[in-house]
Amino acid sequence: MNDPSRDADTLAPGHGPAAPGPGLSGFSELSELSGLPGLPGTSDPRTAAGPSKAPRPPAAPAGTAPAGTDPADPSPPVLAPELPAARGPITTLLFERLVRPPHRFGLFSLPLMSFPARFAGPVLADEDVQLALFVCYELHYQGFWGVDERWEWNPSLLEVREILETRFEEGLARAVSCPPAPRPGDTRRALVELVAAAEGPDLSVFLQRQADLAQFREFVAHRSIYHLKEADPHTWGIPRLRGRSKAALVEIQMDEYGGGRPGRMHSELFRTTMRGLGMDDSYGAYLGRVPAITLAISNAMSLFGLHRRHLGALLGHLAAFEMTSSIPNACYSRGVRRLGGDEETSRFYDEHVQADAVHEQVAAHDMCGGFVAQHPSRAGDVLYGAACGLALDRLFAEHVTGSWSRGLSSLREAGTTIGP
Q1: Whole-number Å distance between alpha carbons of 214 and 409
Q2: Radius of gyration, CA atoms only, the chain
């Protein structure tokens, strides 16, 4: 796993001063939140040549609602994050393009084709590749401040994304052992056996029993990349399904989106957890801090969700996600409470203990089983998607626990300590 030496500083959120976390007793004083410095030797896309743009409005202080928001809806208007600092030649030149008006450009203007040695190493740990792909995908979600929305379907950018995706898929294929395709009626059993055979360090138990506050905040910063848009990548699958599998996916997603209640959306519950831990809960606040493996976890979801050919893998990925959720989330909840967190701060994890115990049955039997019944030849795709999710989680846990065992931060460019 690519793990350059980092200072052993603890986590500092990324934008502006934080209010004291209301859900964490004993931590009334928080340090100021540090900015996200660029990496040496790379250009900051926010200063690249291009049209001037108004500064991004500051995020609301933690624990407060922005002026003008509906009091019945706790979610603020999403302020798209700024592009993070580049991490290599691909992101440097890509970001310099994105801050300009949409235009066509040749592939040889980016170091994708002209520098094939860039892909000689493990792609899942390549900071430059994973960030470039993540940014391409994020244009289909909330986008970035100062990046024209028309870039989303720009033909030249899609060509770049295709090359990055090809390398990413090759990396997944090398890292994941493809399970044998089950018989259509054995899909649920095959998923259960695959999950039971998964190996790797038990990060959830460490967080429950041993992690200090700084380490738990680091874990939450990693997870914020997905949880602040929880369920969105898998929702791409809904219009591509029919019958029982579609109804099952909708049932799962309805719970993820709070059953129509904004405050119960899982992404909103996670924001509450972040505020309770004294962290910046704005969308994408920690994008510049997380390493390649964290980005790869989200990139796999977007890859599967945005391509109809990967529909089976998308469903298998979600099934594995749900089937490995309840027990770890119970550990996370106990860890939060051990560190002084209150009921509001742990509610996100408590909600998943209950909801995902039901979801895992719906996902494996009705969603995946129904899909394979309609498409028997794609049973192997379902297991492959599940195997990808399990493998990436293992690599993530190895990175985090390995960093901590060496006294290092699991994040990039660790900044100022927060806490009393």
Answers
A1: 9
A2: 21
* 142 φψ region: left (φ > 0), alpha (ψ -120 to 50), beta (else): alpha
CATH number of 180-405: 1.20.910.10
Taking only the tens place, the pLDDT of each residue in 135-180 is 999 999 999 999 999 999 999 999 999 999 999 999 999 999 878 8
Asked if pLDDT for residue 408 goes beyond 50, the answer is yes
Q: What residue segments make up the domains of the chain, in order of their start?
A: 180-405
**Alpha helices, DSSP H only, in 242-378?**
243-256, 266-276, 292-306, 311-323, 326-338, 343-361, 369-374
DSSP 142: T
CB 279 within 8 A of CB 21: yes
- CA distance to 46, 66, 188, 204, 215, per residue, from 272 (Å): 30, 15, 34, 20, 18
Q: Would you call 24 helix, strand, or coil by DSSP?
A: strand
Q: What is the pTM of this model?
A: 0.83
Per the CB < 8 A criterion, the answer to whether 85 and 38 are in contact is: yes
Find, among 331, 291, 303, the residue nearest to 201 by Cα. Answer: 331
What Cα–Cα distance (Å) separates residue 319 from each residue in 55, 125, 258, 413?
41, 25, 19, 34
